[in-house]
Amino acid sequence: MTAPTTDPTSEGPRSMTDPHRVLVLNSGSSSVKYQLLDMRDRSRPATGLVERIGEATSRLVHTPRGGEPRERTGRIADHEQALKAAADELAADGLGLDSPELAAIGHRVVHGGLRFSEPTLITDEVLEEIERLVPVAPLHNPANITGIRTARALRPDLPQVAVFDTAFHTSMPEHAARYAIDVETADAHRIRRYGFHGTSHAHVSRRTAELLGRPVTDVNVIVLHLGNGASASAVEGGRCVDTSMGLTPLEGLVMGTRSGDIDPAVTFHLKRVAGMSTDEIDVLLNKRSGLVGLCGDNDMREIRRRVDEGDERAALAFDVYIHRLKKYIGAYSAVLGRVDAVVFTAGVGENSAPVREAALAGLEGFGLAVDPDRNAVRSGEPRLISPDGARVAVAVVPTDEELEIAGQTFDLVHN
Question: Which of 165, 340, 400, 411 is an active site residue?
Fold first, then answer.
């Protein structure tokens, strides 16, 4: 099976009597993010965040639609308490988990391997398979599993759906997904390129086609998801044919704290010459590299401020970041053959005009350019920033992973 290319959030108005709300849960190792979405109009009756779970300084911030945020602090021992606290806040607004308007709970699950190529109704068997994938997603899948188990205990009668970060990328051809290592070893240990940020790449590539007024099946797009984590994808007619992240989210672009592409022999060198342990190298590459490793900051706004003040380390970090971006734009232009649009999304992609300008500077031969005035506009709406008549459109399209998860969840339980 392949990931759907249709828009799961674009259907007409829902019945006023049928269950029409989806609770989206994103359970991290020490946090739970939640959003309640009304699928009739894509509105959000409530959003919230529980952070620092297990610490004395736990914090819950709940924001009802049209209201002021409510905050509570104090120890929240575990994910079960966190979800119960979130449920209490929802209930205080008349939006509790026992509401007949709640159609399903959608869970973000980072790694679905090759088995899960589309949203999946969670059963005991599905949960067991997600557990079997923990070795390839040790930082993420355990937290996702905890959130699923807790939510199922709170509402065992309610449909619960797993939406996988990797699903959109399962359409990659084998020659793009394979690493050039011994096949038997790779297969025995599930070593291949899976890709991540799939819900974002799916949402943004489809919205880009809408912005261009063309069917998604007719559009080739390079999506640049640039946040603290960053990834690129080559999307041909609504299907991913290549993406920058691999077995883990470490591969690819320069990120806030992750190195991205690096010679694998660096790890051997650090172990032999520097005497570093495997765990120390893991921490170095995932938490002390990328922008923060190069200049001590992972906030692009602060890096640009330092660049403007003449800070050489910040300038080097910015240049390394942009150089890697250009390499992927060029590579994916070659992979696709024909590019209709390059689109920027996520925190940096949506908000940093200097990054967008620098990433495409000198790529006029590829048909790529930005209009300075359009690029400088700040907006929460999808927009073109390329000049009139450009051969390749350049766009900024805000991502909305929660809406994508809610839409896929709602479609599954109603079909």
Answer: 165
